Protein backbone atom coordinates (compact mmCIF):
# COMPACT_ATOMS: atom_id res chain seq x y z
CA UNK A 1 0.00 0.00 0.00
CA UNK A 2 1.38 3.43 -0.87
CA UNK A 3 2.03 5.86 1.96
CA UNK A 4 -0.85 8.17 2.92
CA UNK A 5 -0.24 11.59 1.47
CA UNK A 6 -0.45 13.28 4.89
CA UNK A 7 2.64 11.32 5.90
CA UNK A 8 4.77 12.20 2.88
CA UNK A 9 7.51 14.81 3.20
CA UNK A 10 7.32 18.36 1.89
CA UNK A 11 9.73 21.15 1.09
CA UNK A 12 8.32 24.31 2.69
CA UNK A 13 10.32 26.84 0.72
CA UNK A 14 13.59 25.45 2.01
CA UNK A 15 12.39 23.99 5.31
CA UNK A 16 12.15 20.19 5.13
CA UNK A 17 8.97 18.80 6.69
CA UNK A 18 8.83 15.03 7.34
CA UNK A 19 5.04 15.03 6.91
CA UNK A 20 2.17 17.33 5.92
CA UNK A 21 0.38 17.37 9.27
CA UNK A 22 0.44 20.90 10.72
CA UNK A 23 -0.51 21.86 14.27
CA UNK A 24 -2.89 24.83 13.92
CA UNK A 25 -2.33 27.92 16.09
CA UNK A 26 -4.25 27.64 19.36
CA UNK A 27 -4.46 30.01 22.29
CA UNK A 28 -4.09 28.04 25.53
CA UNK A 29 -3.75 30.88 28.07
CA UNK A 30 -1.19 29.12 30.28
CA UNK A 31 1.20 32.12 30.60
CA UNK A 32 -0.27 33.23 33.93
CA UNK A 33 2.87 34.99 35.15
CA UNK A 34 3.63 38.71 35.55
CA UNK A 35 5.51 39.00 32.23
CA UNK A 36 3.19 36.70 30.25
CA UNK A 37 6.29 34.71 29.30
CA UNK A 38 6.34 31.08 28.12
CA UNK A 39 7.88 28.64 30.63
CA UNK A 40 9.99 25.50 30.38
CA UNK A 41 7.55 23.32 32.32
CA UNK A 42 4.47 24.61 30.49
CA UNK A 43 4.66 25.90 26.90
CA UNK A 44 8.06 24.30 26.13
CA UNK A 45 6.87 20.91 27.35
CA UNK A 46 3.51 21.26 25.55
CA UNK A 47 5.00 22.09 22.14
CA UNK A 48 7.86 19.57 22.45
CA UNK A 49 5.26 16.82 22.98
CA UNK A 50 3.89 17.72 19.53
CA UNK A 51 7.26 17.93 17.75
CA UNK A 52 6.47 15.08 15.35
CA UNK A 53 4.09 17.43 13.49
CA UNK A 54 5.40 18.42 10.08
CA UNK A 55 5.09 21.99 11.35
CA UNK A 56 3.86 23.54 14.61
CA UNK A 57 2.27 26.98 14.46
CA UNK A 58 2.26 28.50 17.95
CA UNK A 59 -0.69 30.07 19.70
CA UNK A 60 -1.35 33.71 18.78
CA UNK A 61 1.35 35.84 20.41
CA UNK A 62 0.64 39.55 20.99
CA UNK A 63 3.13 41.97 19.46
CA UNK A 64 2.49 44.83 21.93
CA UNK A 65 0.42 45.77 24.97
CA UNK A 66 -2.21 47.24 22.61
CA UNK A 67 -2.43 43.93 20.73
CA UNK A 68 -3.62 41.91 23.75
CA UNK A 69 -7.21 40.75 23.96
CA UNK A 70 -7.11 37.49 25.91
CA UNK A 71 -5.92 36.72 29.40
CA UNK A 72 -2.59 34.91 30.07
CA UNK A 73 -1.39 34.74 26.47
CA UNK A 74 2.40 34.68 25.94
CA UNK A 75 3.64 37.76 24.05
CA UNK A 76 6.65 38.41 21.80
CA UNK A 77 7.56 41.99 22.67
CA UNK A 78 9.34 41.84 26.07
CA UNK A 79 12.77 40.37 26.80
CA UNK A 80 11.37 37.86 29.33
CA UNK A 81 9.00 36.62 26.63
CA UNK A 82 11.82 36.19 24.10
CA UNK A 83 13.79 34.25 26.72
CA UNK A 84 10.73 32.11 27.43
CA UNK A 85 10.13 31.36 23.75
CA UNK A 86 13.82 30.38 23.40
CA UNK A 87 13.12 27.51 25.80
CA UNK A 88 10.20 26.47 23.59
CA UNK A 89 12.10 26.51 20.29
CA UNK A 90 15.13 24.76 21.84
CA UNK A 91 12.99 21.94 23.21
CA UNK A 92 11.06 21.53 19.95
CA UNK A 93 14.29 21.48 17.94
CA UNK A 94 15.87 18.96 20.35
CA UNK A 95 12.96 16.68 19.43
CA UNK A 96 13.60 17.34 15.71
CA UNK A 97 10.51 19.53 15.31
CA UNK A 98 9.87 22.80 13.49
CA UNK A 99 7.90 25.74 14.87
CA UNK A 100 6.57 29.07 13.55
CA UNK A 101 5.12 31.74 15.85
CA UNK A 102 1.79 33.40 15.14
CA UNK A 103 2.06 37.21 15.40
CA UNK A 104 -1.18 38.64 16.74
CA UNK A 105 -3.07 41.91 17.23
CA UNK A 106 -6.73 41.50 18.18
CA UNK A 107 -7.87 45.08 17.39
CA UNK A 108 -11.49 45.65 18.40
CA UNK A 109 -11.83 42.17 19.93
CA UNK A 110 -9.97 43.51 22.96
CA UNK A 111 -11.46 45.28 25.98
CA UNK A 112 -10.68 48.45 28.02
CA UNK A 113 -9.80 46.14 30.96
CA UNK A 114 -6.56 45.29 29.11
CA UNK A 115 -5.72 48.95 28.43
CA UNK A 116 -6.17 50.82 31.74
CA UNK A 117 -9.69 51.78 30.70
CA UNK A 118 -8.69 53.07 27.22
CA UNK A 119 -10.65 51.84 24.20
CA UNK A 120 -9.08 49.14 22.03
CA UNK A 121 -7.80 50.13 18.57
CA UNK A 122 -9.51 49.24 15.28
CA UNK A 123 -9.76 50.48 11.68
CA UNK A 124 -13.14 52.11 12.47
CA UNK A 125 -15.25 52.84 15.54
CA UNK A 126 -17.59 49.87 15.02
CA UNK A 127 -18.40 47.55 17.91
CA UNK A 128 -18.13 43.87 16.86
CA UNK A 129 -20.86 43.10 19.41
CA UNK A 130 -18.93 40.05 20.51
CA UNK A 131 -17.31 38.92 23.75
CA UNK A 132 -13.79 39.56 24.97
CA UNK A 133 -12.05 37.12 27.36
CA UNK A 134 -10.81 39.46 30.10
CA UNK A 135 -9.07 38.69 33.41
CA UNK A 136 -12.57 38.80 34.97
CA UNK A 137 -14.11 36.43 32.44
CA UNK A 138 -16.09 37.09 29.27
CA UNK A 139 -17.29 40.68 28.82
CA UNK A 140 -19.15 42.44 26.01
CA UNK A 141 -16.89 44.25 23.56
CA UNK A 142 -17.08 48.05 23.30
CA UNK A 143 -16.99 50.55 20.45
CA UNK A 144 -13.26 50.77 19.65
CA UNK A 145 -11.18 53.84 18.79
CA UNK A 146 -10.51 54.47 15.10
CA UNK A 147 -6.76 54.23 14.58
CA UNK A 148 -4.83 57.29 13.48
CA UNK A 149 -2.31 56.94 10.65
CA UNK A 150 0.43 57.18 13.30
CA UNK A 151 -1.13 54.29 15.23
CA UNK A 152 -1.31 52.21 12.04
CA UNK A 153 2.37 52.89 11.31
CA UNK A 154 3.28 52.00 14.91
CA UNK A 155 1.34 48.73 14.63
CA UNK A 156 3.24 47.81 11.45
CA UNK A 157 6.47 48.51 13.37
CA UNK A 158 5.22 46.29 16.20
CA UNK A 159 4.64 43.40 13.76
CA UNK A 160 8.18 43.91 12.43
CA UNK A 161 9.58 44.00 15.95
CA UNK A 162 7.65 40.83 16.83
CA UNK A 163 9.20 39.09 13.81
CA UNK A 164 12.68 40.28 14.79
CA UNK A 165 12.15 38.98 18.32
CA UNK A 166 10.85 35.69 16.91
CA UNK A 167 14.08 35.22 14.96
CA UNK A 168 16.08 35.96 18.11
CA UNK A 169 13.98 33.39 19.97
CA UNK A 170 14.90 30.71 17.42
CA UNK A 171 11.63 30.24 15.53
CA UNK A 172 11.77 28.68 12.07
CA UNK A 173 9.38 31.32 10.75
CA UNK A 174 6.38 33.51 11.53
CA UNK A 175 2.69 33.40 10.67
CA UNK A 176 0.99 36.79 10.42
CA UNK A 177 -2.45 36.49 12.03
CA UNK A 178 -4.63 38.18 9.41
CA UNK A 179 -7.63 35.99 10.15
CA UNK A 180 -10.56 35.21 12.44
CA UNK A 181 -11.89 38.75 12.84
CA UNK A 182 -8.74 40.21 14.44
CA UNK A 183 -7.08 43.50 13.54
CA UNK A 184 -5.84 42.84 10.00
CA UNK A 185 -9.04 41.02 9.06
CA UNK A 186 -10.97 44.02 10.44
CA UNK A 187 -9.21 46.18 7.85
CA UNK A 188 -10.18 43.83 4.97
CA UNK A 189 -13.98 43.83 5.44
CA UNK A 190 -16.14 46.84 4.58
CA UNK A 191 -18.43 45.95 7.50
CA UNK A 192 -15.61 46.68 9.98
CA UNK A 193 -13.63 49.24 7.97
CA UNK A 194 -15.47 52.39 6.84
CA UNK A 195 -12.34 54.56 6.62
CA UNK A 196 -12.14 57.16 3.88
CA UNK A 197 -8.34 57.53 3.87
CA UNK A 198 -5.65 55.39 2.18
CA UNK A 199 -6.61 52.38 4.40
CA UNK A 200 -10.28 52.23 3.41
CA UNK A 201 -12.82 52.76 0.66
CA UNK A 202 -11.43 50.44 -2.02
CA UNK A 203 -10.35 46.81 -2.02
CA UNK A 204 -6.72 47.84 -2.56
CA UNK A 205 -6.86 50.30 0.34
CA UNK A 206 -8.46 47.84 2.75
CA UNK A 207 -5.80 45.23 1.93
CA UNK A 208 -2.91 47.72 2.07
CA UNK A 209 -1.95 47.23 5.72
CA UNK A 210 -1.29 43.50 5.18
CA UNK A 211 1.23 44.17 2.43
CA UNK A 212 2.85 46.90 4.52
CA UNK A 213 3.19 44.42 7.38
CA UNK A 214 4.77 41.81 5.06
CA UNK A 215 7.14 44.41 3.58
CA UNK A 216 8.16 45.56 7.07
CA UNK A 217 8.76 42.00 8.30
CA UNK A 218 10.82 41.25 5.18
CA UNK A 219 13.33 43.81 6.44
CA UNK A 220 14.18 41.60 9.42
CA UNK A 221 13.86 38.05 8.06
CA UNK A 222 13.69 36.17 4.74
CA UNK A 223 10.25 36.23 3.09
CA UNK A 224 10.59 32.47 2.55
CA UNK A 225 9.98 32.10 6.30
CA UNK A 226 6.86 34.28 6.42
CA UNK A 227 3.39 32.73 6.30
CA UNK A 228 -0.02 34.24 6.91
CA UNK A 229 -3.52 33.13 7.74
CA UNK A 230 -6.86 34.07 6.11
CA UNK A 231 -10.48 33.10 6.83
CA UNK A 232 -12.37 34.57 3.83
CA UNK A 233 -15.87 33.21 4.57
CA UNK A 234 -15.97 34.05 8.28
CA UNK A 235 -19.49 35.27 8.91
CA UNK A 236 -20.78 35.59 12.48
CA UNK A 237 -17.97 34.41 14.77
CA UNK A 238 -15.76 37.11 16.33
CA UNK A 239 -18.26 39.79 15.28
CA UNK A 240 -17.25 39.48 11.63
CA UNK A 241 -19.76 39.88 8.81
CA UNK A 242 -19.41 39.74 5.03
CA UNK A 243 -20.66 41.91 2.19
CA UNK A 244 -20.45 41.75 -1.60
CA UNK A 245 -16.86 42.98 -1.64
CA UNK A 246 -15.53 40.52 0.96
CA UNK A 247 -14.64 37.64 -1.33
CA UNK A 248 -13.36 39.94 -4.11
CA UNK A 249 -11.08 41.49 -1.44
CA UNK A 250 -9.68 38.10 -0.48
CA UNK A 251 -9.31 37.17 -4.17
CA UNK A 252 -7.30 40.36 -4.66
CA UNK A 253 -5.15 39.60 -1.59
CA UNK A 254 -4.42 36.00 -2.56
CA UNK A 255 -3.58 37.00 -6.15
CA UNK A 256 -1.24 39.72 -4.98
CA UNK A 257 0.48 37.33 -2.59
CA UNK A 258 1.80 35.57 -5.72
CA UNK A 259 4.19 38.53 -6.06
CA UNK A 260 5.95 37.31 -2.90
CA UNK A 261 7.96 34.14 -2.27
CA UNK A 262 6.30 33.33 1.07
CA UNK A 263 6.51 30.16 3.17
CA UNK A 264 2.76 29.59 2.80
CA UNK A 265 -0.79 30.90 2.83
CA UNK A 266 -2.91 29.24 5.51
CA UNK A 267 -6.64 29.20 4.76
CA UNK A 268 -9.63 28.17 6.84
CA UNK A 269 -12.78 26.58 5.47
CA UNK A 270 -15.87 28.46 6.76
CA UNK A 271 -16.32 28.13 10.54
CA UNK A 272 -20.13 28.09 10.10
CA UNK A 273 -22.58 26.87 7.46
CA UNK A 274 -22.52 29.63 4.82
CA UNK A 275 -24.49 27.79 2.14
CA UNK A 276 -27.33 30.34 2.39
CA UNK A 277 -24.97 33.32 2.30
CA UNK A 278 -24.78 34.86 -1.19
CA UNK A 279 -21.56 36.68 -0.32
CA UNK A 280 -19.66 33.60 0.88
CA UNK A 281 -17.61 30.90 -0.82
CA UNK A 282 -18.41 27.50 0.70
CA UNK A 283 -15.34 25.57 -0.50
CA UNK A 284 -12.31 27.67 0.30
CA UNK A 285 -9.51 25.28 -0.71
CA UNK A 286 -11.17 24.60 -4.07
CA UNK A 287 -11.75 28.30 -4.72
CA UNK A 288 -8.27 29.51 -3.78
CA UNK A 289 -6.06 26.66 -5.04
CA UNK A 290 -6.16 27.89 -8.64
CA UNK A 291 -5.49 31.48 -7.53
CA UNK A 292 -2.38 30.86 -5.41
CA UNK A 293 0.87 29.52 -6.84
CA UNK A 294 2.72 28.83 -3.57
CA UNK A 295 2.13 26.46 -0.65
CA UNK A 296 -1.44 26.28 0.67
CA UNK A 297 -2.27 25.01 4.13
CA UNK A 298 -5.94 24.23 4.70
CA UNK A 299 -7.68 23.98 8.08
CA UNK A 300 -10.92 23.58 9.96
CA UNK A 301 -12.90 20.41 10.52
CA UNK A 302 -10.44 17.96 8.95
CA UNK A 303 -9.93 14.37 10.07
CA UNK A 304 -7.37 11.91 8.72
CA UNK A 305 -9.48 10.81 5.75
CA UNK A 306 -10.49 14.29 4.67
CA UNK A 307 -6.89 15.47 5.09
CA UNK A 308 -5.52 12.81 2.77
CA UNK A 309 -8.33 13.52 0.31
CA UNK A 310 -7.80 17.28 0.06
CA UNK A 311 -4.11 16.69 -0.76
CA UNK A 312 -4.92 13.93 -3.23
CA UNK A 313 -7.42 16.18 -5.02
CA UNK A 314 -4.70 18.79 -5.34
CA UNK A 315 -6.59 21.46 -3.37
CA UNK A 316 -3.99 21.91 -0.62
CA UNK A 317 -0.39 20.95 0.15
CA UNK A 318 -0.60 20.70 3.94
CA UNK A 319 -3.43 20.23 6.44
CA UNK A 320 -3.61 22.01 9.80
CA UNK A 321 -5.33 20.29 12.72
CA UNK A 322 -6.55 22.31 15.69
CA UNK A 323 -8.66 20.58 18.34
CA UNK A 324 -7.37 17.08 17.45
CA UNK A 325 -3.89 18.35 18.39
CA UNK A 326 -5.06 19.53 21.81
CA UNK A 327 -5.88 16.01 22.91
CA UNK A 328 -3.51 13.99 20.67
CA UNK A 329 0.11 15.14 20.98
CA UNK A 330 1.02 12.01 18.98
CA UNK A 331 -1.41 12.79 16.14
CA UNK A 332 1.13 11.87 13.44
CA UNK A 333 1.88 8.49 15.03
CA UNK A 334 -1.87 7.86 15.45
CA UNK A 335 -2.39 8.55 11.74
CA UNK A 336 0.53 6.23 10.95
CA UNK A 337 -0.71 3.36 13.09
CA UNK A 338 -4.45 3.90 12.75
CA UNK A 339 -4.91 4.46 16.51
CA UNK A 340 -8.23 6.05 17.59
CA UNK A 341 -8.08 9.68 18.65
CA UNK A 342 -8.62 10.89 22.23
CA UNK A 343 -11.46 13.43 22.68
CA UNK A 344 -10.64 16.98 23.73
CA UNK A 345 -12.06 18.63 26.85
CA UNK A 346 -13.35 22.14 26.08
CA UNK A 347 -13.44 23.08 29.77
CA UNK A 348 -9.63 23.08 29.91
CA UNK A 349 -8.92 24.94 26.64
CA UNK A 350 -8.11 28.28 28.31
CA UNK A 351 -7.68 27.65 32.06
CA UNK A 352 -4.40 27.83 34.02
CA UNK A 353 -2.64 24.63 35.07
CA UNK A 354 -1.44 21.39 33.54
CA UNK A 355 -4.81 19.63 33.45
CA UNK A 356 -6.02 19.32 29.86
CA UNK A 357 -2.65 20.71 28.76
CA UNK A 358 0.14 18.27 29.58
CA UNK A 359 -1.76 15.15 30.59
CA UNK A 360 -3.21 13.79 27.31
CA UNK A 361 -1.93 10.26 26.50
CA UNK A 362 0.68 9.53 23.81
CA UNK A 363 -0.25 5.86 23.35
CA UNK A 364 0.77 5.63 19.72
CA UNK A 365 4.33 6.71 20.35
CA UNK A 366 5.97 3.43 21.34
C1 LIG B 1 -8.66 26.46 21.99
C2 LIG B 1 -8.52 27.11 20.65
C3 LIG B 1 -7.71 28.21 20.52
C4 LIG B 1 -7.51 28.80 19.25
N1 LIG B 1 -6.64 29.86 19.13
C5 LIG B 1 -6.31 30.32 17.90
C6 LIG B 1 -5.26 31.27 17.72
O1 LIG B 1 -4.58 31.71 18.67
N2 LIG B 1 -5.00 31.69 16.47
C7 LIG B 1 -5.71 31.24 15.38
O2 LIG B 1 -5.44 31.66 14.24
N3 LIG B 1 -6.69 30.32 15.52
C8 LIG B 1 -6.99 29.85 16.74
N4 LIG B 1 -7.94 28.85 16.87
C9 LIG B 1 -8.55 28.28 15.67
C10 LIG B 1 -7.81 27.01 15.23
O3 LIG B 1 -6.51 27.31 14.76
C11 LIG B 1 -8.58 26.29 14.11
O4 LIG B 1 -8.76 27.18 13.04
C12 LIG B 1 -9.94 25.75 14.56
O5 LIG B 1 -9.83 25.05 15.79
C13 LIG B 1 -10.55 24.85 13.50
O6 LIG B 1 -9.71 23.75 13.24
P1 LIG B 1 -10.06 22.27 13.84
O7 LIG B 1 -11.42 21.91 13.28
O8 LIG B 1 -8.97 21.36 13.31
O9 LIG B 1 -10.09 22.39 15.33
C14 LIG B 1 -8.18 28.29 18.12
C15 LIG B 1 -9.03 27.18 18.28
C16 LIG B 1 -9.20 26.58 19.52
C17 LIG B 1 -10.07 25.37 19.64
TrEMBL record:
Alphabetical list of Gene3D superfamilies matching this protein: Aldolase class I
TM annotation in the entry: none
Keyword line: Oxidoreductase
GO cellular component: cytosol
Keyword Oxidoreductase attached: yes
Listed cofactors: FMN
Segments forming domain NADH:flavin oxidoreductase/NADH oxidase N-terminal: 15-340
Family: Belongs to the NADH:flavin oxidoreductase/NADH oxidase family.
Name under which the protein is recorded: N-ethylmaleimide reductase
Organism of provenance: Zunongwangia mangrovi
Amino acid sequence: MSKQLLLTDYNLNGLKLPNRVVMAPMTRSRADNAENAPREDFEAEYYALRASAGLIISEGSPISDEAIGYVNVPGIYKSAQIEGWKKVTEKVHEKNGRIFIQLWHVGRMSHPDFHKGEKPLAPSAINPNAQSYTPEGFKDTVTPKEMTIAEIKQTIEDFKNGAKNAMEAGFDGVEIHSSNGYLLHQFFNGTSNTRTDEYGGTIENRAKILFEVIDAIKQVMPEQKIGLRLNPSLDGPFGMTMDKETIPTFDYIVNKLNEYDLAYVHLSEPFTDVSDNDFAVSEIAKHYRPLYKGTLIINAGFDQEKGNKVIEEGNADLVAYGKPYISNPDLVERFEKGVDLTDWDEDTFYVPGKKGYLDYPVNARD
